[in-house]
Specification:
Rossmann fold; 6-stranded mixed sheet; two-stranded antiparallel ribbon; 7 helices
């Protein structure tokens, strides 16, 4: 079993639900047939291992110095990716983007050991419309970081990747909703 296949199985066991009728309320307020909460997976030891290695594989050719996104969804993935990068002897710094700007000390959006001008990959656990990823891209750029890629762990396939591409050209998803549904239907 590949890392991707294993992560799909783990997400289906811990993080994914679906219904024939829309019943899951999204951040936007609308109802969906699909529910994805990656945190039970990305905070588990095996899920962290798998997500870190798969995201590192997606960004290692981009020559980035940092990987991160909007707290809290991106945080465990960023840390796991940084750890995987060190294991591969290609270290990439993890960083986190605050939801509200720090208003004391050094006032900033981004926490981590990166300097302005550093090339970074923005990551997110799930994309529906892409709003939180776009917010992370904008805040990273406000701090002087050069966003060269975005990676989404799970694309709900509802237009998010297309919206994100309006802000950064290189956008990929590790897993899609179709991948999750194929696993669920294949094991039914």
């Amino acid at each position: 079993m590949t890392y991707q296949e294993e992560l799909i199985a783990l997400l289906c066991a811990k993080s994914f639900q679906y219904s024939r009728e829309p019943k899951f309320k999204l951040v936007s307020g609308r109802l969906s047939r699909f529910y994805v909460n990656c945190k039970p997976t990305t905070l588990s030891p095996r899920g962290m291992f798998l997500a870190g290695h798969l995201v590192f594989d997606a960004i290692k050719a981009c020559d980035v110095q940092g990987v991160g996104g909007l707290t809290f969804g991106a945080d465990p993935i960023a840390v796991a990716t940084a750890f995987a990068s060190e294991l591969q002897q290609q270290p990439i710094q993890a960083f986190s983007i605050r939801k509200t700007r720090k208003d004391h000390g050094i006032i900033r959006w981004v926490e981590g050991d990166l300097q302005p001008g550093a090339s970074v990959a923005i990551i997110d656990d799930v994309a529906t419309t892409g709003g939180s990823t776009i917010k992370a891209i904008e805040r990273a750029r406000e701090e002087g970081l050069k966003v060269v890629k975005a990676v989404i762990l799970v694309d709900r396939q509802e237009g998010g990747l297309e919206n994100i591409r309006e802000h950064v050209a290189d956008v990929t998803a590790v897993i899609t909703r179709d991948d999750l549904m194929a696993h669920v239907e294949g094991s039914a």
